[in-house]
Amino acid sequence: MDFELKKKMEFNQIETSIEERKSFENSCCENDLSLVSISLEAEVPEALYVGMKDFICGNEKWDQSKLISSAIANFLFQNGSDDRAITEKYLNDIFNL
Questions:
Q1: If pLDDT is split at 50, 70 and 90, which confidence band does 9 have?
Q2: Helix/strand/coil (H/E/C) assignment for every residue in 23-77
Q3: So where are the chain's domains?
Q4: For the chain, which has fewer Cβ within 10 Å, the N-terminal or C-terminal residue?
Q5: Predicted model pTM
Q6: Alpha-carbon torsion 70, 74, 75, 77, what sign?
Q7: CB 93 within 8 A of CB 73
């Protein structure tokens, strides 16, 4: 097998793998927000940090990740998102506070 053909086949395998991963991630996102997660870093005002810390200390069922994801779902829902997974996250968080 010549080098160019081998290189093209490897590229196609990588491209197929990327497409399969994207397809899987998209199906997960459509079905359940908790299956896919990302790392997020943000600067927030000290007052928000203190409020978040105090809330988490007073509510054993909550952690920083759950609070941030709930806040994002709340924001998106209240600003017109029609994604079913976001609506479910929003409503679950309201009733499980």
A1: low
A2: HHHHHHHHHCHHHCCCCCCCCCCHHHHHHHHHHHHHCCCCCHHHHHHHHHHHHHH
A3: 1-31, 38-97
A4: N
A5: 0.59
A6: positive
A7: yes
